[in-house]
Known about the structure:
The protein has helices spanning 2-22, 31-60, 74-102, 106-109. The chain is mainly alpha-helical. α2 (31-60) runs antiparallel to α3 (74-102).
Amino acid sequence: MAAVWISVFGKLAGVPGALALTQRWGSLFPRWLVLLAGWGVTALLCLYGGANLVQQLLMAAGVVEVSDTFRPVLMWHLFLWSPVWLIGGVLYGIATFYLTKASRAPETAAR
C-alpha cells in the first residue's frame, strides 16, 4: 500500500514540473534545475512507457508468458496505459525542448 501512495505522490509531482516548463512562474526556479528535471522526467516517462509497450507487445505475440492475473488487463495496458506514458514523455520532452530554445541567451541562439 505504501508503494501505491509513493507512486501517486510521484505522479502528482510531475504536474507542477510540467507547468514550470510552460508558465511564467517557472522562471522563479534556476533554469538549469527546471531543464534538468524536464529532461529527467522525459527520459523516465519514455523509458517506462517504451519498455512496457515492448514487453506487452511480446506478451500479446506469445513470446513472453502472461500471468493469469495480468491476462485480463493486457490489452488495456497495451493500447491505453503504456502509450499514455510514452506520449506523456514525448510531450514533456517537447515542452522541455522549447524551454531550452526559448531561454537561451540571445548571443548563443544566434550561433
